[in-house]
């Protein structure tokens, strides 16, 4: 019985072995997932920069909208104050006849000798007119007092609204401005981290190591504003492969693809051509008729295409097959036309829409 208790059942051994195998397989799958995700972490940094830029853009629009609301409120307030001023002017006009009647009363005072005859029923026409004037003065004065009181209350209400409105607007604007500034700092920090990662992987940004305009992924769309083949050099980001450059987002995605390729084959992707200016497009077009797009229509001129070598240029090779299976994870693909018309296994293109879905 003691011996039996020391023996592990065969089923338990099998279960333990199965568990170990599952752990190993799971570890391999997890490793593959990490590799597929992005070994250089550039894709996530770029997307984080883009998300940050979008948040910054939305916050800036909210701030501009708030300022427009403030301007509208100030305009409304100005209208109310103008109406208040007009009411003051009307009140001044209304007070004028009252003053005139008071002056008339002073000129024709109702003395005791006038009141007594009135009370005894012996008042003459002059006395009756004077008393009527007094009654009118009292009535108009009472109306003026009531209107003045209402006007002052309206003034106080408008002043309170104005103070509350301005204080609220200033506070909201200050909060939004602070948020925009925070988002801008965050965006700049992410871009700097991305630039540092590019430099670490061999991208020559510039001699002093500062982020070049062309390697800022937030400026990628700006490069698209230029005609095909006429993108300024400063708007392009260099590849690790010396002498070649692309649009910022295409370069960042290609560097990530290159690092995954390096892990698989132990070498960097071989690049023969990337961005081509208009003159270079014309040269290739005349040297290789039928194998180059009409100058001004090539994706090379948009900084969104590369021609590859080192095995990728041979259809069916291990490098080519790997590219077919993995390139889309980084936004790169082999266009359908390049399989037949004409057949160009070396030509690969970047599509931001594919990359945005990853």
From TrEMBL:
Keywords: Carboxypeptidase, Coiled coil, Hydrolase, Protease
CDD domains the record matches: Peptidase_M15
Residues making up the signal peptide according to the UniProt record: none
Superkingdom to which the source organism belongs: Bacteria
GO biological process, any: proteolysis
Gene Ontology MF annotations: carboxypeptidase activity
Pfam families recorded: VanY (PF02557)
Residue ranges that the Swiss-Prot or TrEMBL entry lists as coiled coil: 42-90
D-alanyl-D-alanine carboxypeptidase-like core domain residues: 245-352
Protein name as it appears in the record: D-alanyl-D-alanine carboxypeptidase
Protein's organism: Nonomuraea solani
